[in-house]
Amino acid sequence: MLLADTFGGTQTILLGIALLSTGLVLWRFAFRSPRRQTPNLAHQVQREALQREKSAAARVDQIEIRLHDFCREIEGRAQTRITLLDRLVEEADSEIARLRGTLEDARNERPSSAANPGPDIVVPSGASNRSRGLSDAARSAAPLSDDQERMVLDLYAAGHTIEQIAVLCGRSAALVRLVLGVGRTDAQSEAA
Known about the structure:
Helix content is 83%, strand content 0%. With 192 residues, it is mainly α. Among the domains are: 63 residues; 65 residues, no CATH class. The chain is rod-shaped, with a radius of gyration of 58 Å. It starts with a helix and ends with a helix.
């Protein structure tokens, strides 16, 4: 009763109420029911799941935006290539039309050349007169240059006759035969 002697009646009542409330608070925190903790845990798990779902949805949205941008870029590149190809096709069509027109003009200008196919020969205006003015001996006496010999061989390979080559070169047919080796081959075959 030592406490009762030091404290008065009201102080003892106040001390009792303070001890009782402290015990009640301690008891409440110490012996909480598991029912109240489970809903808090469930609520926390639910919040975490909702946050994960929101972050996954945000990722999906970002990926969708990137995919959309990529599709637009690819579509732009394809459209550019299609436009370029269309322009090239138009240019090719105009070139085809131009070449067809040129071909038609060429066919209309030379109807006799289509009936008489062969190499085109342009005879110089004075070549036949020059060849007529010289005798065969004089024409065959003058040697051919390397370029003239090459021309004789090329004309013969193109299908020209020896007489045509002689007229074009202004030389005798005998000299053309000599350059071509036709006369030698005939003479060698007769000797054999």
